Amino acid sequence: MIEVSHYSKRYGAHEAVQDLSFTVQPGAVFGLLGSNGAGKTTTIRALVGLTRPTSGTVRVAGFDVWKEPVKAKAAFGYIPDRPYLYGKLTARELLRFVGQLYKVEGADAEIDRWLTLFRLEDFGNELIETFSHGMRQKVAIISAMLPDPGVLIIDEPMVGLDPHAARQVRELFRAHADRGRTVLLTTHSLPLAEAVCDRLVVLDRGRVLGEGTMDDLRTRTGTAAGGVHGD
Ligand code: ATP
């Protein structure tokens, strides 16, 4: 579960995020929706312990990320918007390393299953440095999913993915939440938010335009989702 309470972030005089509050319950896929500069990545970075809030609190799995970082960080899997993967390893080597680190049972079989799901089975033994952006994104998603995290936090998961992979990722977020896990993603894509999120917050230049289901937002604000891209 994720709890963000009166979270604000200021860079000098610039308010990147102003007074943001939301809760994500287990079993839900929750979206932060907004255009460039809305404050999505800033919020995610506070939640994963990378950028300290100016004010407010952020909690993951019941732990204050900035007061109990070790416990909070053990509870989530995180995929940044530009994941860094060590290029001198093959995809399989990297994923085996993750499997060992998190003591994943039956990791080899799981890795095969994931590689096949993302049509990477012929590339498992290739160096990651030879991969396209979309292929790296898939490996990053697999490495976050392999330990089966209770909370999955993903910044712009669909950027660079082909339509097949995008559909797989949508389905796996849904399935992950349906098993009682929590999924938080950011997106600038209204159709993605509509297709996968149970609830969302719409941000615009750091301000909250609305929070709720897509239907709530349409009804309450009319234009809340305006300004975000329809691709
Ligand atoms: P994008 O999709 O473009 O990444 P975003 O919604 O994720 O957009 P953020 O990256 O969170 O937006 O940025 C929110 C605002 O905070 C922007 O105006 C950005 O320029 C500013 N900002 C972000 N990081 C910093 C930083 N380290 N120093 C100063 N300003 C920053």
From TrEMBL:
Q: Which Gene3D superfamilies match?
A: P-loop containing nucleotide triphosphate hydrolases
Q: Which domain of life is it from?
A: Bacteria
Q: What Gene Ontology terms describe what this protein does at the molecular function level?
A: ATP binding; ATP hydrolysis activity
What keywords are annotated for this sequence in UniProt?
A: ATP-binding, Nucleotide-binding, Transport
Secretion signal, residue range per the UniProt entry: none
InterPro entries referenced in this protein's UniProt entry, alphabetically:
AAA+_ATPase (IPR003593), ABC_transporter-like_ATP-bd (IPR003439), ABC_transporter-like_CS (IPR017871), ABC_Transporter_VariousFunc (IPR051782), P-loop_NTPase (IPR027417)
Q: Which residues form the ABC transporter domain?
A: 2-230
Q: Which Pfam families match?
A: ABC_tran (PF00005)
Supply the name of the protein.
ABC transporter, ATP-binding protein
